[in-house]
Design goal:
Elements lengths: L11 E4 L7 H17 L7 H14 L12 E4 L2 E4 L5 E4 L6 E4 L14 E3 L3 H10 L3 E3 L8 H19 L9 H10 L6 H15 L17 E3 L5 H11 L4 H7 L1 H8 L4 H15 L3 H9 L12 H8 L9
Parallel strand pairs: 5-6
Antiparallel strand pairs: 1-2, 3-4, 4-5, 7-8
């Protein structure tokens, strides 16, 4: 890629898979020879053909019993993330297209999109996500234990602050983090304060907190809606919420390992222990709990016999 504009030439992705030894390609040749052997009347006397079949079979095994095939995959890709040019999110297949840069947006040069932002353009990104209906508030999402998710995000923020203070976080429990939160209450960032206000609303019927896009907690309160680019949007949100180490690890491995390299040893130890203890044991369940979407409720169709059972064969009886 000699320019960012070249990325917009990408429309369709085709994947051709094979083993490092070319087994799939070799198996395709062997199947062709087998078909030829079956079709030709004098193939039993063709020592060259038989020799080639035996030679290929030594590499692939018996493809008549164990087929060695990998389907070619092809799909359109309008919206994507790339590590090129410092990292960029390309959203073309939405009503209001835009590009969001993880680094310096000025290195892109001329690209065929009107709106280009970087991660510091929080208000613009928030407006972009809202206009395209790409996100929803965690507290409004169906089937989520929103308060538990917000508490966990708050714990991650406390862990980050405590690690910067040199606290030993090895084996730290949620109770330990609550105590550290009280100890370093004056040092907790605005993101923690905003999430705490939202938890008070969710659990204690507190006032609804006004958390706008310029608030540090704003993107921590969001997740992707149920659409085809949910993984990409959650990846973007992870980059905008780097203190949520679990979402960063799940949704954006590149950003996670870049951040991990700069963390103090205390935070590294805590993060590794947490991911091993609470994520690796049930990765699919955790992802479903955080980012999954329940099927919408549907009103069951009322069958004729159900209607009879409900109101009787002569219809509803009215009472005076």
């Amino acid at each position: 890629m000699d320019s960012a504009a070249r990325l917009f030439d990408i429309r369709r992705i085709t994947i051709e898979a094979d083993t490092t030894e070319g087994t799939v390609r070799t198996a395709a040749k062997l199947r062709g020879l087998i078909d030829q052997f079956k079709a030709e009347d004098d193939a039993w006397f063709d020592d060259v053909l038989i020799g080639r079949m035996i030679g290929l079979a030594k590499e692939t095994g018996d493809v008549t019993r164990n087929s060695v095939t990998l389907d070619q995959m092809r799909f359109d890709q309008m919206n994507f993330w790339t590590a090129h040019f410092g990292g960029m999110y390309v959203f073309r297949g939405v009503e209001h297209p835009a590009v969001i840069a993880a680094g310096n947006k000025n290195v892109f040069g001329r690209i065929p999109v009107d709106h280009v932002f970087d991660v510091s353009d929080r208000a613009a990104i928030a407006k972009f996500l809202t206009l395209n209906d790409l996100v929803e508030r965690i507290v409004e999402a169906r089937g989520l234990d929103a308060a538990a998710i917000l508490h966990q995000k708050m714990d991650f923020i406390v862990a980050s602050v405590a690690a910067e203070m040199g606290e030993d976080l090895a084996g730290a429990t949620r109770r330990d983090l609550r105590q550290l939160g009280r100890r370093y209450a004056d040092d907790l960032p605005a993101a923690w304060q905003g999430l705490a206000a939202l938890v008070r609303w969710a659990e204690e019927d507190g006032p609804w907190p006004r958390i706008t896009s310029d608030h540090d907690a704003y993107f921590y309160t969001l997740r992707a809606r149920d659409h085809g680019d949910a993984d990409l949007v959650n990846m973007l949100l992870a980059e905008l919420c780097p203190l949520d180490i679990r979402q960063l690890f799940i949704c954006h491995k590149a950003a996670f390992y870049a951040a991990y390299a700069a963390w103090p040893d205390e935070k590294r130890a805590y993060v590794v222990d947490f991911l091993d203890r609470e994520y690796q044991v049930d990765k699919a369940g955790t992802r479903a709990a955080l980012f999954g979407h329940d099927a919408p409720l549907e009103e069951p169709a009322l069958q004729k016999r159900d209607m009879i059972k409900a109101v009787g064969p002569w219809g509803a009886v009215r009472r005076r």
